[in-house]
């Protein structure tokens, strides 16, 4: 592998960068010949200070008020979409409402019919869309 260096001897130069004790070291290509080519990553200093801690929830993780039908099922006046979906799945599994032949289909009881628009059977992919109208904006 050639790095375009005709000099085969090791050459290291040190000279001060400023008046402090910092120095800059230049090393010839010969000493770097055994290193693999890698990607150089340069990071700029951020203008904002790094904040530790949690940020305020946004989007689907932000608690929203829900409809009375959804409140009957979940038992809370407001909840994030993600948690509502989790609670609905827990309810489905606890009451054994999945179709035994096809677990992707949910057989609705009266509480779920109120939420899912009166449907008897709902596919698991439909659930997120069917709970959307129950979140009051």
UniProtKB/TrEMBL annotation:
Taxonomic superkingdom: Eukaryota
Region Disordered, annotated ranges: 45-68
Residue ranges of domain DM2 in the record: 59-137
InterPro entries: SWIB_domain (IPR019835), SWIB_MDM2_dom_sf (IPR036885), SWIB_MDM2_domain (IPR003121)
PANTHER family referenced in this protein's UniProt entry, alphabetically: SWI/SNF-RELATED MATRIX-ASSOCIATED ACTIN-DEPENDENT REGULATOR OF CHROMATIN SUBFAMILY D
Protein name: DM2 domain-containing protein
Species this protein is from: Tetracentron sinense (Spur-leaf)
